């Protein structure tokens, strides 16, 4: 691992021009005083050890460049230069963020009018954890639900880094770290490879508002949710209950563990009947709303892609660690649910082979159901099993029972008969008789 240099005692006196002071005078003095500690001789090693993209084939689309001796985080590309994007090494090595940013991340940044590099690492941790939990349960993360849970917190006049704070009574995650400062000085530039069009540029080649630092960040708030997103919010809020005194997810634990371990832990929470009920109602509403058009809360039937065509919901597979909840519970088995979530995302292992942990767990669940059914059938015996499988309608009447006559006698209502009789073929007489009995009871 490339060694990181401490930001202590690394000071570079800088005399800024009048134009620079006019453009960046709102920024805190410390941010101007402290340069990046990432140097050119350590960048190649850092690049080899750090994965930037969700799709390994897209690694070559990006070029890394260290900050110049007088470059600072708020600086933006000049008009005659190629637009770049400021990033921190910890985004990729500790939080598992990948390029390009997902639509959910970009939408939250756009609504809050804050640059990605202007957001504190804990704020990015909230975004990443929220996204990962939603994708595991089979629905796309909604920026409305997130901003209904968290609000943007900025220092006076927006002079420094901003973060997210939960509204009173809506806290979902603990901070990634209580006090984390060193990341601020391990920044560098990401530029497009010549001939490549990158995700932070629009169709006209101009950068989106969340690329460079903004003097006045937005104060966007969501005060109400529609019924479907309210169900999603209530379901997510019900999950951490019972994990400990504070009843919050450990953000760092979720980001440090593999998808399989996190999935097993999250599924174990559904053993609670109330949480399972919340989940079932949410998935039922999602199924009912599927025909209403695309929504950010609906499950994704295909890989969720960004404008660059790269899967936006992919994530790196972290080293496997035994899953332990904050309450000290041991690894839990996956619980079968009545409404199985759709395929949330795929991952790549160390050899670059794509895997789908959710599909593997679903396959194991199906095998377990088949084995349980076989064991039950063997216990009943061959004769009992055959009787158990027989359609009760076949034995409800004697073999010479005249179903057609019963149907004719039952359908005394001429309009109903004219509609139903052509729809009843000879091979469905058993079903027709059952329908006739039902109609007779209704007519009487």
TrEMBL record:
Enumerate the residue ranges of region (Disordered): 290-395
Q: What positions belong to coiled-coil segments?
A: none
Bias type Low complexity, positions: 305-343
Stretches with biased composition (Basic and acidic residues): 351-361
What PANTHER family is this protein classified in? F5J5.12, OS06G0165300 PROTEIN
Q: What is this protein called?
A: Transposase (Putative), gypsy type
Task: Tell me the organism.
Answer: Stylosanthes scabra
Its organism's taxonomic lineage begins at: Eukaryota, Viridiplantae, Streptophyta, Embryophyta, Tracheophyta
């Amino acid at each position: 691992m490339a060694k990181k240099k401490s930001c202590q005692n690394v000071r570079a006196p800088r005399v800024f021009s009048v134009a620079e002071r006019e453009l960046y005078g709102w920024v805190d003095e410390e941010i101007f005083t402290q340069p990046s500690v990432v140097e050119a001789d350590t960048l190649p090693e850092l690049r080899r050890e750090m994965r930037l993209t969700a799709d390994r084939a897209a690694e070559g689309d990006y070029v890394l460049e260290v900050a110049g001796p007088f470059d600072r985080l708020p600086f933006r590309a000049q008009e005659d230069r190629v637009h770049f994007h400021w990033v921190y090494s910890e985004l990729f090595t500790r939080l598992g963020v990948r390029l390009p940013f997902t639509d959910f991340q970009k939408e939250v940044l756009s609504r809050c009018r804050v640059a990605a590099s202007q957001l504190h690492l804990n704020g990015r941790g909230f975004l990443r954890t929220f996204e990962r939990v939603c994708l595991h349960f089979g629905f796309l993360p909604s920026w409305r639900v997130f901003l209904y849970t968290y609000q943007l917190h900025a220092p006076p006049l927006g002079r420094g880094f901003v973060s997210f704070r939960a509204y009173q009574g809506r806290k979902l995650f603990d901070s990634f770290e209580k006090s984390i400062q060193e990341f601020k000085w391990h920044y560098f530039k990401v530029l497009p490879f010549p001939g490549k069009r990158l995700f932070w540029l629009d169709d006209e080649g101009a950068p989106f508002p969340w690329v460079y630092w903004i003097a006045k960040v937005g104060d966007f708030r969501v005060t109400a949710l529609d019924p479907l997103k309210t169900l999603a919010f209530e379901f997510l809020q019900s999950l951490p209950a019972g994990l400990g005194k504070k009843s919050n997810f450990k953000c760092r634990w979720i980001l440090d563990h593999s998808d399989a371990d996190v999935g097993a832990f999250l599924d174990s929470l559904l053993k609670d009947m109330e949480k399972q009920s919340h989940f079932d109602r949410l998935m039922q509403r999602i199924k009912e709303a599927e025909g209403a058009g695309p929504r950010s809360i609906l499950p994704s039937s295909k890989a969720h892609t960004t404008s660059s065509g790269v899967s936006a919901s992919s994530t790196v597979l972290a080293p496997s660690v035994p899953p332990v909840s904050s309450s000290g519970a041991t690894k839990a088995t996956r619980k079968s649910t009545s409404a199985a979530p759709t395929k949330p995302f795929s991952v790549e292992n160390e050899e670059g082979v794509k895997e789908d942990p959710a599909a593997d767990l679903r396959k194991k669940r199906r095998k377990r159901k088949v084995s349980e059914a076989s064991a039950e059938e063997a216990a009943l015996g061959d004769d009992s099993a055959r009787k158990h499988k027989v359609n009760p309608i076949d034995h409800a009447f004697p073999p010479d029972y005249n179903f057609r006559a019963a149907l004719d006698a039952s359908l005394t209502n001429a309009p109903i008969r004219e509609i139903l009789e052509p729809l009843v073929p000879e091979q469905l007489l058993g079903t027709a008789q059952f329908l006739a009995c039902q109609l007779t009871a209704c007519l009487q």
